[in-house]
Amino acid sequence: MIINIPKPVVLASVSPRRALLLQQIGISASVVPSSVEEELISGVQPRELVVRNALNKALDVSPRIESGIIIGADTVVVLNGRILGKPRDQEEAKHMLRMLSGREHTVYTGFALVDRPSNAQITDVEETLVAFRKIPEQEIEAYVRSGSPMDKAGGYGIQDDYGAVFVERIEGDFYTVVGFPLAKFYIRLQELLSHLDGELGHR
Q1: Which of 28, 137, 165, 172 has the most CB atoms around it within 10 Å of its CB?
Q2: Residue 1's pLDDT band (boundaries 50, 70, 90)?
Q3: Which residue ranges form the domains of the chain, and what is each CATH number?
Q4: Is 160 a catalytic residue?
């Protein structure tokens, strides 16, 4: 581990991708799923929306944790100002992929860190531009039949997923598209730990 975390880490998400990304940087997190529904609120900007959802998830779990750092996260895809969350069914997944085909969109991932028992909070967000190639209808049909799009914002995955072959290029942090911007998270986690060290030093 390249960072020393003196208390348990809790992921307020059942996303296996986020758990694996934390493991990638040496953080073993227990999973305590949040019961908060991800909101798609009309008129709320994407950056604000994903941070709000991420913080709500972390705060929902935090009363159940006596001591630890709780992580919440949320990802949306935005196409021409329209926010795309997770598809509700296969038809919506197909519709999303048809809209994204041959076009550029932006992926926003927000995250929140909540410490227990101090209740100190840090939130942040990252965005990445993604360009799709033109996707033939038969590929959309086959991908949706696989079931893979159903738990992913915008109806596709970029890592360990067939959806990766839809992507021609990205501009920004790859891990934001996966669902967790590791570099920015690592920096903000260090800030939180420094803050907590400072608080302990003044007691």
Answers
A1: 172
A2: low
A3: 9-201 (3.90.950.10)
A4: no
